[in-house]
Amino acid sequence: MIPKNLIRLLVAGGVLLLLVFAKPFVIVRAGMVGVVYSFGSIVGQVDEGFHLIWPWWFVTHTDIKVQRAVLDKLPSFSAETQGLFVRASLNYQVSPKAVQTLFRTVGPDYFHVLIEPRVAQNFKDETVKYKSVDIAPNREKIRQAVRQRLEAELSPYSIHIIDLLLDNVDFSPAFKQSIENKQIATQKSLEQEQLVSAAKFAAQQRVETEK
For residue 87, which of 176, 177, 165, 175 has the smallest C-alpha distance? Predict the structure, then answer.
């Protein structure tokens, strides 16, 4: 006959092994949301804290804090179809209550699917309204227009635009060289005009002196 103490020990060991391998709980850290999967399908989500779950559930953790993304060298164009590159910084946040819906409709890679292409396209749509020389003076208008469009396009997915910064607008090396050459030519032209004016003034002075 098996001793009762041994039976209790075996039962306790079995329960402990079940807890270790089945892991019927999950801990969601602050600023995160747990998306619950059951046999590959999303069945809900859990907020931060300790939660008991069924052994056949699988939970992925998703950050719901404000996220920052830097999008560098976004290709765009001016009104003269002159190529340029935009560097922008985006702060965004997903509504905590809408994470599972976003995952169902778009997937966990929603940034590259939804946000990144819209930022690039909206900058193209805005910079093409201005000539190359007018883009820098109108950076704030371009930034505001792109931000408003992003808010309107992403709000149905419960993605909120906290801020959008236009860090830099850069042109191709060939275009910048042509601008520099033009400035040099203009400066030389001004210098020549000044030399001609000085020569004319000197000639007039000589005429007055001779008189």
Answer: 165
